[in-house]
Design goal:
Shape: elongated
Strand order of the largest sheet: 6-7-8-3-9-10
Strand content: 5-15%
CATH superfamily of the largest domain: ABC transporter type 1, transmembrane domain
Order of helices and strands: HHHHHHHHHHHEEEHEEHEHHHHEHEEEHH
CATH architecture of the largest domain: Up-down Bundle
CATH class of the largest domain: Mainly Alpha
Radius of gyration: 39 Å
Distance between the termini: 50 Å
Number of strands: 10
Structural class: alpha/beta
Largest sheet: 6 strands, mixed
Length: 667
Amino acid sequence: MMGGLDGARRLMERDVIKPKDVSATLLRFWQYFRKRWFALLIVAVLMVVVTWAQVVSPRLIGQAVDCYLFQENPFAAMAPPSAEGQSAQQTSTCWYDSTDFGSLSEDEAQSARISGLGGLVGALLLLFIVGSMLRGLMFFVMNWAGQTALRQIRVDVFRHINRLSLGYYAENEAGNIMSRFTNDSETIQQALGFALLNVLSGILLIVWVVVEMLQTNVPYALLSLAVLPFMLLATSYFSSQARRAFRRSRQEMGSVNANLQESIAGVREVQAFNREDENIEEFRRTNAANRDANVRAAAFTSALNPVLEGLGYVALAIVVVVGGLSLLRNEPLFGTTVISIGTVIAFLGYVQNFNQPIQQIAVLWTNIQSAVAGGERIFNLLDVEPDVVDKPGARVMPPIEGKVEFIGAEAEYKVGEPVLKGVNLTAQKGETVAIVGPTGAGKTTIINLIPRFYDVSGGAVQIDGIDVRDVTSASLRQQIGIVLQDTFLFSDTVMNNIRYGRLDATDEEVIAAAKLVAADQFIERLPQGFNTVLGERGSGLSQGQRQLIAIARVALMSPRILILDEATSSVDTRTERLIQKAFEQLLEGRTSFVIAHRLSTIRNADQVLYLKDGQIIERGTHNELLAKQGAYYDLYMSQFRRQDETASATNGASAPALTPAPQPSGD
């Protein structure tokens, strides 16, 4: 458990110290959004219309006051006379109705005012209703665009993790990768629709309101916007801190997922070694780190809103105090005309429209920052280049005949630490090559080079004289069948698990493959036979039964090259004999590479290779190597001989005869 968590922390630390480029991440998001340009165009048009409705509303309210309620400053009589001995006059622009009320009788003027005011109120109501409807439509279209973009991101991530080389999974925890795919994409989903649109529309509204205020009264507007720099500074500081905290939260969540995934996958080992308390304590520590990161993010998010709200009240106070003093004194503001009551009321609306999106942006921007942090992690994953890629112009592998050659093959998982050192071997068409040796000798590395799960660091691996690096990986691997020691079955029917080897196979072909390896006997005893749905990783079946299904899967492929990595290591003697009988038919005419610790799987091999420290130190048939009395002989005497004697005792006279092992000399 500790090793997996350490790996997750190392990945987390790499994410923390790697420089972040927000603009580059947003540009990557745009690459997905631009394919939905028509939806974005609709959103842009609706955003302009909705923002215009929000901006024009305070102006209409101001016109209603100045043009129909107070055409003159009601406080003018209270103000002292100006230097010229006359009161200053306010000016108002009544663009909605140009009626000259002074030319009408009192009743006519009152009727005209009521009519004009009613029309203006109706226009305001229409703006509110239409604006609300268009806002709802705008959010729907934006949400659709965001969800379709997120769907493509998820598809790209899933496609990419299926392309990554095995070396990447050896260094990175599955739980951390899953965290990027689930938690980070969920954070992006929350931001791409509602939050992103509110931020964009808020920015447009702020700019438009500022322009409108400046056009109405420049000095008054500048005084009203005096708090803007402080708002921007507060937003910048708190948002940057929140972004760092959200990034840490995402990374700590990856550690939590890695811990959880390992605990579930290794629950048997946890209970067998009585490690429940230690695992719970480790999970408590990682979960606490995630909590602390979220609390820190929430602290900055919570602090920002009241700061901006307080600054917003200051802006409202400036509007009221400055405008009120101008009205009460009936004096122009910095040489301009006297501010009208309608202008003060309009500016109150402008400032509210100005403050509200700033506060909203500040809060939602933290969500955007969290999405950017999640996007960085996802794009970092997408930027990981597979170690094994098809070279430009790689051709399709022609039908394989079966000759496999290793020419001075060298391999290393870490630079400077060779695993294979100049391996040379030739397997002719139809030959069976058995590979034995101590743990860490390089047996698995050899078989991983054939389907090109890893590339050689020196030399070459050729099939039918073609370097495996010169052909596409897909066309190469579809002609190679692999049965691994750790069998993986999917949560699907037995039929589909076998059909996984060849998706276009008919039910009859699947059943025939199962019969070939004698898997049909236990499959037919299952509740629904071949249509029985297996549990996760084939739970409910014995290890031997899972192995038989995996072998049937390969048999269905009918590959030209077979790779068997401990293919019979987890089955009983009876099942092993059934598999060996099936292998006699399956291996016929096919080139096979077998890694095994059981004598029965290698005694009839055309070649037996003994590996030690990444080199082939002995090669030959089983009997030839016994006669040499070298490393293979020692392995036989310490391990295989007991298996041979057990098999002979079990089978009696029917046991296959072996060439007696030479006895060591007396000296």
